[in-house]
Amino acid sequence: MIATFVAGLSALSGVVLGGWLSMRNHDRMAQREHERQWREVRLRFYNDFLAAHRKYVAFVLEPTARITAAPHPRSPGRLMPFFEETGRPYKETLEAGFTAMRLVALSPATVGTAVQMVTHARQLAAARATCSPADLPSSLFQQLWEAEQDFLNAIRGELGLQPMPRDPAQSS
Q1: At what angle do helices 108-128 and 88-104 cross, to 10 degrees?
Q2: In angstroms, what is the C-alpha Rg of the chain?
């Protein structure tokens, strides 16, 4: 009788353990799938933000772009750019991409570097309001490039990748 009880208990324990292991494995797979989906969402939003940023800068550099600037209400010494009707979609797309990117960003470093990208793009646009594309200071482009590199490295950090080395030709 004891042997029957032990055999039954062993069989029941095996079923319970097997069920628990199966559930645990399923939960892990579901967690990995969830993380993969969020990674894809983040990458799509980061890509959209980068594309909007580059289109914004490309518009700013167009010789026909009409941009005006006024003193920034909360940042003394800075100008705030304003675009005419043709440029407004570039600004709106950048702002929407920036907001969406901030919603899904995994780390504060990613958001901080994106803020720098947008700030430098706006400074470039404000400077463009007062001069031609050929007369823009190279320091504005350097700051813009460095901010983009920092953003890309922040994303790479989120993905567990090594940072990209800085191109020495770009920093001179």
Answers
A1: 170
A2: 26
Exposure of 37 by Cβ count < 10 A (0-12 exposed, 13-18 middle, 19+ buried)?
A: exposed
- CA 31, chain centre distance (Å): 23
Task: Write the DSSP symbol of residue 162.
Answer: P
Distance CA 70, CA 125 (A): 11
How many of the other CB atoms lie within 10 Å of CB of 136? 16
The amino acid at residue 165 is P
- pTM recorded for the entire structure: 0.79
Chain centroid offset of residue 51 CA: 11
Per this entry, what is the length of the chain?
172
Phi, psi of 82, deg, nearest 5: -130, 135
Dump pLDDT digits (tens) for 120-153: 999 999 999 989 999 999 999 999 999 999 999 9
